[in-house]
Amino acid sequence: MNVISNKWIGQRTIRPDGADKVTGRAAYGADTVMPGMIWARVLRSPHAHARILRIDTSKAEALPGVKAVMTAKDVVEFPLDKSVMLGIQDMRWMCRNVMAREKALFHGHPVAAVAATTEAIAAEACALIEVEYEVLPWVIEIEDAIKPDAPILHDFIKLDGKPSNIAGKLEHKLGDVDAGFAQADVVIEREFKTRPVHQGYIESHACLVSVSPDGKATIWSSSQGQFMVRAMSAYLTGIPQSDIRAIPAEIGGGFGGKTIIYLEPLALILARKSGRPVKMIMSREEVFRASGPTSGSMSKVKIGATKDGKIVAAQGTFYLQAGALPGSPIRGAAGCAFAPYDIPNVHSLGFDVVSNRSKVAAYRAPGAPIGAYAVECVVDEIAEALKMDPLELRLKNAAKQGTKAAHGPVYPRIGFVETIEAALAHPHYKAPLGKHQGRGVASGFWFNAGGESSAQVNVTEDGNVVVTTGHPDIGGSRASTANITAELLGIDYKRVSVLIGDTATIGYSNLTGGSRVTFASAMVVTQSTEKVITTLRERAAKIWKIDPEAVTWDDGEARPAGDNAGKFPALTLAEIAAKASETGGPIGAGVQLNTAGAEGGFATHVCDVEVDLDLGIVRVLRYTSFQDVGRAIHPSYVEGQMQGGAAQGIGWALSEEYIYDKKGRVDNASFLDYRMPVCSDLPMLDTVIIEVPNPKHPQGVRGVGEVPLVPPLAAVSNAVYNALGRRFYSLPMSPPRVLEVLEGA
Amino acid sequence: MTDTRYLAPQTLDEAVGAFAAAAGAARILAGGTDLLVQMRAGLLRPGLIIDIKKIEEMTAIVEEPDGGFRVGAAVSGAALAEHPRFGQVWPGVLEAVNLIGSTQVQGRASPGGNLCNASPAGDSVPAMIAAGAVVTVQGPNGRRQMPVEAVPAGPGRTNLTPGEILVSFALPARPKGSGDAYLRMIPRTEMDIAVVGVGVSLTIQGGTVTAARVGLGAVAPTVLLVADAADALIGSKLDDAALEAAAAACRAACRPIDDKRGTIVYRTKVAGVLLKRTVAIAAERAGRA
């Protein structure tokens, strides 16, 4: 089934969830209500770091209207000395993240939760909980956390035998970097800093949980994986997974931040205690203080090249903030940093650093933008030193089929070269620039992922099709699924309905994350649909009383394979469906796979900026993304991913950052002062889709969603350099910092 | 839990009576775009809310026979924008009022609320100061007038006495050759709060500035009237030396803080930059008027 007729694949069909979303009918995490429902609020630590000596909840419990109170003692404890992994999440850290146990590890860390008949009573009860703290010295920034005399967050984390805030290390080695640098004519080494940034989803975390008298729980929540919600809730409450049904709500943005849970186990425990359905919604302030973000970083990158522009050695050290509990995306930073290039000698090193900030969560290509920022800025400097065009330098060193990457793989057919060539040929790259304007380029790589997915394709009695998958649809995956199903069956797109099953109605499916959903669900949906087509041919054969091998499926109908098969009028899907009972029963098929073959994604971005020299404001004037997507099943949502990643990267580069006050508290926990770009801050973000099909996928799909956030930090930074002749080695390039650098010129 | 009562009087006397009787437990509701947000954030829990939007004088825009304007304290930004004449005479005041919040917020947000919220970063205030607006307030002891710049006392505090309600803004008649403008520095292009805001009003006769006023926001505990900047402009032909002197006066007037929105150094520098840019727009408008 590798032949693609292109009737529906590649079409900009109307998304199945579109009408509900634009008319307000779509139900998000906070939209479900139940009779008897009560509300829960979280009491959060007022300290950045404190030992919890005593919690007295008696006054809160005595307040009229309060139905249940919980603390860490109600959460299943995972001992510190034994790792229990669920995907990339360690339950030791999760049980301590959802509710502070021995210590409150950051300002805003949950300490207790109360369910009451109203939110106001729950909040009032939280204020009645007495917590005795022993306030401890705290540390926020990486450079402070790795000092020898830094306050230690976790005594059990040791480096070289001594307690340390460095919780983990990852190393990739290829060749011999010392020998490589010895061959180089130009060597440039620079240090960089980035600030933590939040995923910035519009919908805050929200859930409703009901527990029946026999202990069976139902969870309605917005997440990037209902099966993740079920499994983590089961781990943290001790309820078997079979007794938890997690129903995915529509999701108002996740970007990786909803691949872990915060509220569900608390609501579940409170619902179990109170016997009432419990609803919880995080305020925006809580979202900023206690969820996400991605890591801030400190990096050092050294690259050496010969005078003809061949990169011969590269070395990178990347320190990433994990937040209060281990687990920063050092793999993304250290692994992706040099992955776009064919470099014989690479040494890439990542360090996971804990400090008293909220635990980081995945954010779109976790870690990769941090690595690419440093590498792509140094590559730009190498190009300048060699007087080479920065794209030509990238082209000369671009990884291609057969290149051995430092993080492990030998690449199959990839489309990186094509992205650079397209950028070089594009009118944007040659467009004239005005005064105080500059142009920058950068490239990027993301691993992409396969993993577990399930699908069920059912033919209705009237001959239409219902497809169920197990992935929350975060970027238009229902539309892509419908395109593929309609294509394979040869029927109109409108005859295919695509639904997202809950944990009780569809088989296990891994997270919507890692740019895996369209890749993986296309595989299981393709195989399921192929099974359905086989059944349809068998049914036609039965009706015609011929061999199934003598029946073909073309254009939505069964036809005799040739004159030898006999002369029968074609049977449509509807005609076969109508006779399903008499020919063998319901028609449908499900497939569950652990998908593999998700090959890496590459992109090259070109960015033009203009700088207001007196105010220090950097405005992006023009931005074009070139990305190898393998195959664009639904081009609009591929473009949407490319634009969204660019927009988030521009925010990361120019305006977004966490600001802490002198007491270790986030000082800008609102969309007013945490400055994500608004629409009017950005030009139209142009996209150029490049399709080099993934040879390991039935439709040629590569993951699309994460690569777009990898190049922008450096693309913007290199553009600012081009405009000003001054380099910035720290993000964000906010107006006061730009002016500071310009004044210092 | 204390309940909040809501009152929507038809007359100013009734409103003043209720406000004074509540003795500090009441808050005035105009558009509510600050008050309701503060209540939702748990910062305020007033016992009584007095909605002044039902009082005719509070929502009226009147062009006086002499060419001046009287704008009710609760007039929304959107209503002011739709007035056929106001924006022609006071484009700077209008653009400042229209910068308060988003399009949706403009349907409610008022210059009176913006002034009484007493944020040093309120957008309409520097423009009103530059315009030479005089406010009427009414309290238990009757009515009085005060210049706009005398209203703010500090962040979140005004010089209105207990029981006093802001009623309206009076903007003077414009001589020929007048123009005004307001510019603010924000990191984003909209949906943001001023890091520095500058309002300028000029009258130019035969190429020479005959009258000028400068209002400067977000650089001190209150929005400032910068007389020295105006003095540097008056009598000049807006030559570089005069502009630089006015910019220097603005920088000298700054008493900002370092915070998440900007540094002292940054705000001070930007005050001078914006002064020059705002003067250029006001002068261009004066040339057309």
Automatic annotation (TrEMBL), chain A:
<feature type="domain" description="Aldehyde oxidase/xanthine dehydrogenase a/b hammerhead">
    <location>
        <begin position="23"/>
        <end position="137"/>
    </location>
</feature>
<dbReference type="InterPro" id="IPR016208">
    <property type="entry name" value="Ald_Oxase/xanthine_DH-like"/>
</dbReference>
<protein>
    <submittedName>
        <fullName>Xanthine dehydrogenase family protein molybdopterin-binding subunit</fullName>
    </submittedName>
</protein>
<dbReference type="Pfam" id="PF20256">
    <property type="entry name" value="MoCoBD_2"/>
</dbReference>
<dbReference type="InterPro" id="IPR037165">
    <property type="entry name" value="AldOxase/xan_DH_Mopterin-bd_sf"/>
</dbReference>
<dbReference type="Pfam" id="PF02738">
    <property type="entry name" value="MoCoBD_1"/>
</dbReference>
<dbReference type="Pfam" id="PF01315">
    <property type="entry name" value="Ald_Xan_dh_C"/>
</dbReference>
<dbReference type="InterPro" id="IPR008274">
    <property type="entry name" value="AldOxase/xan_DH_MoCoBD1"/>
</dbReference>
<dbReference type="InterPro" id="IPR036856">
    <property type="entry name" value="Ald_Oxase/Xan_DH_a/b_sf"/>
</dbReference>
<dbReference type="InterPro" id="IPR000674">
    <property type="entry name" value="Ald_Oxase/Xan_DH_a/b"/>
</dbReference>
<dbReference type="InterPro" id="IPR046867">
    <property type="entry name" value="AldOxase/xan_DH_MoCoBD2"/>
</dbReference>
Automatic annotation (TrEMBL), chain B:
<dbReference type="InterPro" id="IPR016166">
    <property type="entry name" value="FAD-bd_PCMH"/>
</dbReference>
<protein>
    <submittedName>
        <fullName>Xanthine dehydrogenase family protein subunit M</fullName>
    </submittedName>
</protein>
<dbReference type="InterPro" id="IPR036683">
    <property type="entry name" value="CO_DH_flav_C_dom_sf"/>
</dbReference>
<dbReference type="InterPro" id="IPR051312">
    <property type="entry name" value="Diverse_Substr_Oxidored"/>
</dbReference>
<dbReference type="InterPro" id="IPR002346">
    <property type="entry name" value="Mopterin_DH_FAD-bd"/>
</dbReference>
<dbReference type="Pfam" id="PF03450">
    <property type="entry name" value="CO_deh_flav_C"/>
</dbReference>
<dbReference type="InterPro" id="IPR016167">
    <property type="entry name" value="FAD-bd_PCMH_sub1"/>
</dbReference>
<dbReference type="InterPro" id="IPR005107">
    <property type="entry name" value="CO_DH_flav_C"/>
</dbReference>
<dbReference type="InterPro" id="IPR016169">
    <property type="entry name" value="FAD-bd_PCMH_sub2"/>
</dbReference>
<keyword id="KW-0285">Flavoprotein</keyword>
<keyword id="KW-0274">FAD</keyword>
<dbReference type="InterPro" id="IPR036318">
    <property type="entry name" value="FAD-bd_PCMH-like_sf"/>
</dbReference>
<dbReference type="Pfam" id="PF00941">
    <property type="entry name" value="FAD_binding_5"/>
</dbReference>
<keyword id="KW-0560">Oxidoreductase</keyword>
<feature type="domain" description="FAD-binding PCMH-type">
    <location>
        <begin position="1"/>
        <end position="176"/>
    </location>
</feature>
